[in-house]
């Protein structure tokens, strides 16, 4: 029984209130790295596709007429010209898909950077773009996985159980990371509400601070405000200056 409890404690440690912020930061770093790799692959493929399209255009411009003629019902054109047109159409579709993929990768990189900044600075509003993008991305990936799973050509080089096991693990991992980020986001929102709602009026004590004397315009000695009542140690809220009751870095301890 102790072993089972210990294993359960280890498995739930990343989502424990004490380690939730650390888990969110690690997930954000992982997502940023994956997004940059994805963007690099898209840019690399786009560069090669543009080079291929340029070479194809040069080949079309340099082709010679008068070669073997292939007759159709409407017109006569060389076989090379027909092949070049097919290749040009394929290159155009490839370029279009790569441009779309590069745009999506750029959006994902920006959302992941916002997630990293939000986790480091405890700003819950930076979480929303990544949560939306990753949610729809997970749905799109799941749809592609299901569509490819029903295509028999997918199982030419691997077994069916291997494909479904790998895809299931990856999708489940993505869902778990999204839920962890959402849990940390809810904690930050709850902490922000407590900071705005839980306002306590604390009267300033009349006893001056030790050795704290200053001179007013009338030449009289006035007490220097205590440490916690100085402006640099308070924050401006809707009702005026309020005490900072806790450090913002302690957000991960909030249940």
UniProtKB/TrEMBL annotation:
Name of this protein: Uncharacterized protein
Transmembrane intervals: 20-47, 90-116, 128-151, 163-185
Keywords (A to Z) from UniProt: Membrane, Transmembrane, Transmembrane helix
The answer to whether the entry has keyword Transmembrane helix is yes
Q: Could you tell me the superkingdom of the organism this chain comes from?
A: Eukaryota
Q: From which lineage does this chain's organism come?
A: Eukaryota, Metazoa, Ecdysozoa, Arthropoda, Hexapoda
């Amino acid at each position: 029984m102790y072993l089972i409890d210990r294993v359960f404690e280890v498995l739930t440690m990343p989502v424990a209130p004490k380690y939730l912020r650390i888990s969110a930061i690690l997930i954000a770093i992982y997502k940023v790295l994956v997004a940059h790799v994805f963007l690099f692959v898209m840019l690399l493929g786009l560069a090669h596709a543009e080079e291929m399209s340029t070479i194809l255009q040069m080949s079309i411009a340099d082709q010679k007429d008068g070669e073997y003629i292939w007759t159709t019902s409407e017109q006569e054109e060389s076989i090379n010209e027909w092949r070049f047109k097919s290749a040009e159409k394929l290159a155009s579709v490839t370029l279009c898909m790569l441009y779309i993929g590069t745009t999506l990768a750029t959006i994902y990189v920006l959302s992941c950077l916002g997630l990293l900044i939000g986790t480091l600075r405890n700003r819950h509003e930076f979480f929303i773009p990544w949560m939306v993008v990753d949610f729809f991305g997970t749905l799109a990936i799941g749809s592609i996985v299901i569509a490819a799973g029903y295509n028999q050509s997918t199982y030419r080089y691997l077994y069916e159980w291997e494909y479904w096991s790998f895809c299931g693990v990856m999708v489940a991992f993505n869902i778990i990371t999204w839920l962890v980020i959402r849990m940390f986001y809810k904690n930050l929102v709850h902490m922000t509400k407590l900071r705005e709602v839980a306002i306590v009026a604390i009267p300033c004590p009349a006893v001056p601070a030790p050795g704290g004397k200053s001179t007013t315009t009338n030449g009289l000695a006035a007490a220097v405000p205590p440490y916690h009542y100085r402006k640099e140690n308070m924050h401006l809220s809707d009702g005026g200056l309020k005490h900072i009751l806790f450090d913002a870095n302690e957000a991960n301890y909030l249940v």
